[in-house]
Design a protein that fits this description.
474 residues, alpha+beta, Dna Ligase, domain 1, 7-stranded antiparallel beta sheet, 6-stranded mixed beta sheet, 36% helix, 27% strand, globular, Glutathione_synthase_N_euk, magnesium ion binding
């Protein structure tokens, strides 16, 4: 059936008319990025890169990954509540950024302050590991993003609508029925509104904390509009994270203010990379946020959960089973690829040797969210020859390289179509809202599909390497 569907897509006559119609529809739907010059000034706009046709994805895989997202949410919540486990897991990671976040986490615990409700908006990303012998391609988890979560606004239902139109124009109405609805933006917005309401002050603002050179503004705007469609009285403001020094205040009762205005919810679209913390004052403000009674998305504990070291620890025998039920643990484990520790012990020594000798089989991961951080191929061997005998190596984990099967498609970038062999990455959005031990909300909130040329190791949509996509279920 897969080949039959792929043949239908491959037989479509792709011309300038079809491409232009798709681009016009994308632009009218708000699939836009800002273009900035080297100084950061906005000099124009461009459409988000996308692929012309949807990519064939197993219906069973999408349903399975959506079903277990609530289990991943539960795992995250329970682990963050088990404060000592999180501390013990990360204390030996030789990464200054991780250690500074961990220090804030410890300080908040030591203060014994009453913790506000926690809101999580996450995305668990997978690729399909193709076995040419069996012909199977099970989904394997790449990572869980706890802070660097994007394209829920314009990369989900809006992208699906583009592909509905393309298939209609290509006279393939039967395939339109195989495009799943994907109201991720609405589902995530509902979680944010419930969290904001829990804060208890209808006059308190919801703050989007942004990076300095945002290009993905329209994705953020789509999310803002979805929140205000549910409750137009919520005051939402975008504030650059780097601009906060001199503008914030933490009162004795834990109320957090920006420019004198009380904040009920802090939503981080920045603060996940070391360069986002350009001064000690920024670090102090981040600590004040954690000490405040404002609801954080994510809290520092939730952000630490997304560390690659935690991903490796969960893959160890018996660890996931400590926190979730037997069935949930088994389902979660089905998505794990090979993950290896680089700690300073005999096991770590053997992993370093293995990685240097077979570097093409692995990916080396630092403790970072966001694209462009991973190390591949000969660069792995080169780095480990330099740091493989000292504690610097513990800042990384090693993971088996996932090998998805390429499929033909057309990359639509800058208004033109280029035929490419692409590989795809499926993300499942998750939301949970908790107050102490009690989970108030816990659900999967839609999906995100991105594709990139098969020879590209790493890269994001905003940089033009990857492209938005949507699944065609078979």
């Amino acid at each position: 059936m897969n080949q039959s569907v792929q043949n239908k897509l491959s037989n479509v006559q792709v011309d300038n008319k079809l491409t232009k119609d798709a681009v016009d529809f994308a632009v009218s739907s708000g699939l836009l990025l800002k273009s900035r010059n080297e100084s950061g000034k906005v000099v124009g706009y461009k459409h988000v890169p996308f692929v012309l046709f949807p990519t064939i994805i197993s219906k069973d895989s999408l349903e399975f990954l959506s079903q277990i997202q609530s289990d991943f949410n539960t795992l995250m919540h329970v682990v963050v509540q088990d404060q000592q486990f999180l501390i013990d897991s990360l204390e030996g990671v030789a990464d200054e950024f991780t250690q500074r976040l961990l220090h804030i986490f410890k300080e908040v615990i030591a203060s014994e302050r009453s913790m506000p409700p926690e809101l999580a908006y996450v995305r668990s990303d997978y690729m399909f590991d193709f076995d040419p012998i069996s012909g199977t391609a099970p989904p394997k988890q790449i990572e869980i993003n706890t802070m660097s979560v994007s394209f829920g606004g314009i990369g989900t239902q809006k992208m699906c609508d583009i592909h509905k139109r393309v298939l209609g124009k290509a006279n393939l109405p039967d395939l339109v029925l195989q495009l799943p609805q994907n109201p991720a933006n609405q589902k995530v917005a509902e979680g944010f509104v419930k969290a904001w309401k829990l804060y208890g002050n209808p006059n308190a603002a919801m703050i989007f904390l942004l990076g300095d050179f945002e290009t993905n503004t329209y994705d953020q705007r789509a999310f803002e509009y979805a929140i205000n469609n549910i409750n137009p009285e919520i005051k939402i403001k975008g504030v650059k994270f780097s601009s906060l020094p001199g503008r914030t205040q933490l009162s004795n009762d834990g109320t957090f203010f920006i420019d004198g205005e009380e904040v009920g919810l802090l939503y981080f679209r920045a603060a996940f990379q070391p360069h986002h913390y350009a001064s000690e004052e920024i670090w102090k403000i981040r600590k004040d946020m954690e000490f405040s009674r404002a609801i954080k998305c994510p809290s520092v504990g939730q952000q630490l959960f997304g560390s690659k070291k935690m991903q490796e620890i969960f893959a160890r025998k018996g660890v996931v089973e400590q926190f979730v039920g037997e069935t949930a643990a088994a389902n979660i484990r089905r998505t794990f690829s090979g993950l290896y520790s680089l700690e300073m012990n005999e096991e770590g020594d053997s992993v370093v040797k293995m990685a240097i000798e077979n570097s093409q089989k692995y990916v080396l991961k630092p403790q970072r969210e966001g694209g462009g951080n991973n190390i591949y191929g000969e660069d792995i061997a080169k780095l480990l020859r330099e740091i493989g005998n000292d504690s610097r190596r513990s800042a990384y984990i090693l993971m088996d390289l996932i090998n998805p099967k390429p499929t033909p498609n057309y990359a639509i970038c800058g208004g033109t179509a280029t035929k490419e062999e692409v590989v795809s990455e499926l993300g499942i959005y998750g939301v949970y809202l908790a107050c102490g031990d009690k989970m108030l909300e816990n659900y999967a909130a839609g999906h995100l599909l991105r594709s990139k040329p098969k020879d590209q190791n790493d890269g994001g949509v905003a940089t033009g390497v990857a492209m938005l996509d949507s699944p065609l279920l078979v």
